[in-house]
């Protein structure tokens, strides 16, 4: 099976593979190697049952059930359903997940290192997923900023993106933020990290999941966020994945920035997601 690079900075693609191909040890070894080297692997149009997707995830590590149980697959707790579809007047999953640039779950102390997404019912005309490399972002930082961030610590939080639930109705903005920080306390991570497999440096953090950099004042943080926004979204370094049915995507959560684009009105989109912890 032949993997090919997608764009210079990120991504490797495999076309024509089946589930039986992927579970062959030599092919799966290639897939994992490409995830580590290229940060993102796209397997085009591979038909998978939920059980088969979970099996592939288990070959990489330990699938982690999604934290909100009502958005889990009814028969497979390891699968999160990301969907705007409604059946019997009830949403079948959580809509509008990750419509902003981020690295997965930086607001927790030890995020699962891999994410696996399977396109179950996906339009090709909208609902794309954008990807950019955190290694490339680091490489393109001005040297002044590489030095400035070398030993810096970032404060990460989900409070900017926490969804308002019924129990939050009536709270002021300040009260909501305070409650969010009780439920999900801010965590600290080094701004510059090194990949555990390749040893390559990468930037860890982005505007929507960070309060800021420790020791920076408001103006310095805003300058930092503007710089990072520009580097992440540079068109020359962004891969736009236009989904086709049954595409399977696997990426490294720490070194891969991504964002979902809007789905056009009246169009359904459903994907199955698995977060994967490293096997002990």
The low-confidence parts are none
Beta-strand residue percentage: 25-35%
> Which secondary-structure class do the elements indicate?
alpha+beta
Instruction: Please give the alpha-carbon distance between the first and last residues.
Output: 29 Å
Overall number of strands: 18
> What oligomerization state is this entry in?
single chain
| H-E string | EEHHEHEEEEEEHHEHEEEEHEEEE
Helix count equals 7
Give a short account of the largest sheet.
8 strands, mixed
Structural commentary:
With 280 residues, the chain is of the alpha+beta class. The protein has helices spanning 19-22, 25-38, 50-60, 134-140, 143-149, 173-183, 218-233, and strands spanning 3-7, 10-15, 40-44, 62-64, 80-83, 86-87, 90-91, 114-121, 129-133, 153-156, 187-190, 192-194, 201-203, 210-213, 239-241, 248-252, 256-260, 270-277. Strands 1, 2, 3, 4, 5, 8, 16 and 18 form an eight-stranded mixed β-sheet that branches. It has a three-stranded antiparallel β-sheet with strand order 15-9-17. A three-stranded antiparallel β-sheet has the order 11-10-14. The longest helix is centred in the last third of the chain and has 16 residues, at 218-233.
Topology:
Elements (H helix, E strand, L loop, with lengths): L2 E5 L2 E6 L3 H4 L2 H14 L1 E5 L5 H11 L1 E3 L15 E4 L2 E2 L2 E2 L22 E8 L7 E5 H7 L2 H7 L3 E4 L16 H11 L3 E4 L1 E3 L6 E3 L6 E4 L4 H16 L5 E3 L6 E5 L3 E5 L9 E8 L3
Parallel strand pairs: 2-3
Antiparallel strand pairs: 1-2, 3-16, 4-18, 5-18, 6-7, 8-16, 8-18, 9-15, 9-17, 10-11, 10-14, 12-13
């Amino acid at each position: 099976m032949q993997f090919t690079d997608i764009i210079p900075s990120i991504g490797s693609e495999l076309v024509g593979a089946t589930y039986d191909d992927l579970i062959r040890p030599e092919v799966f070894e290639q897939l994992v190697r490409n995830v580590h080297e290229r940060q993102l692997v796209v397997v085009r149009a591979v038909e998978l049952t939920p059980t088969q997707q979970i099996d592939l995830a288990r070959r990489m590590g330990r699938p982690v059930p999604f934290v909100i149980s009502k958005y889990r697959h009814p028969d497979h707790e390891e699968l999160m359903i990301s969907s705007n579809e409604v059946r019997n007047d009830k949403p079948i999953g959580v809509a509008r997940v990750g419509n902003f640039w981020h690295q997965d779950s930086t607001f927790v102390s030890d995020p699962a290192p891999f994410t696996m997404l399977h396109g179950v019912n996906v339009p090709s005309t909208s609902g794309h997923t954008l990807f950019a490399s955190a290694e490339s972002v680091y490489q393109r930082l001005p040297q002044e900023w590489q030095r400035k961030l070398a030993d810096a610590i970032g404060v990460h939080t989900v409070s900017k993106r926490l969804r308002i639930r019924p129990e939050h109705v009536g709270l002021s903005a300040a009260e909501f933020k305070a409650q969010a920080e009780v439920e999900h306390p801010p965590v600290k991570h080094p701004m510059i990290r090194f990949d555990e497999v390749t040893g390559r440096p990468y930037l860890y953090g982005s505007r929507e999941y960070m309060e800021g950099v420790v020791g920076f004042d408001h103006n310095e943080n805003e300058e930092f966020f503007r710089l990072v926004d520009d580097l992440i979204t540079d068109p020359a370094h962004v891969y736009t994945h236009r989904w086709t049915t049954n595409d399977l995507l696997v990426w490294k959560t720490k070194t891969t920035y991504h964002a979902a684009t809007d789905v056009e009105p009246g169009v359904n989109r459903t994907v199955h997601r698995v977060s994967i912890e490293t096997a002990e």
